[in-house]
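Friendly challenge for the regulars: who can give me the structure tokens for this chain first? No prize, just bragging rights.
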Amino acid sequence: MLIPRQQVPSLNVETVAHGRFDLASNAGEKFTLVVFYRGLHCPICAKYLMELERLVPEFEARGVKTIAVSTDVAERAAEMVKKIKADKLAIGYGVSLTNAREWGLYTTESRGKTSIGIEEPAIFAEPGVFIVRADGTLYYGAVQTMPFARPNFTDLVGALDFAINNNYPARGEYTGPVPS
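First reply, four minutes later:
Bragging rights claimed.
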């Protein structure tokens, strides 16, 4: 489990059109928004990433770099870029399943073709959304077992405004004993 205010795992991937991305050396001025998506086979992911593509300038205006990544191979990631018409949003690929698990993501075995007729990879990572401070520590995290009901990007923009303006600390960092 990732702990707020602690270092996140490494993330070093090639992107379709934005060069190599290494979280350790490519962090945003204030934060980096890292969005793990299921892959090309997921129609909900495509819709979700289209919304993020639209809001990239809003995040950038707040000193937040954005990247969406998956366990997909280069060809599938390039197809996703075309599908969602991404030019501002960096789409990374080739996240290992081991790295996905380090980030606390759930993994799923293929059930064949999806509702849009695209074959699922043999095993792939389920969604996760993370906001990482420039120093590499976790500020916010949400992981899911399913593709639905993900964090809303417009809400995250508003939350970042509040957090930045009020120097609001990351929450959920307590790991000590709890009263019974």
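The longest strand covers residues 31-36. Helices lie at 43-61, 74-84, 97-102, 153-166. Your move, everyone else.
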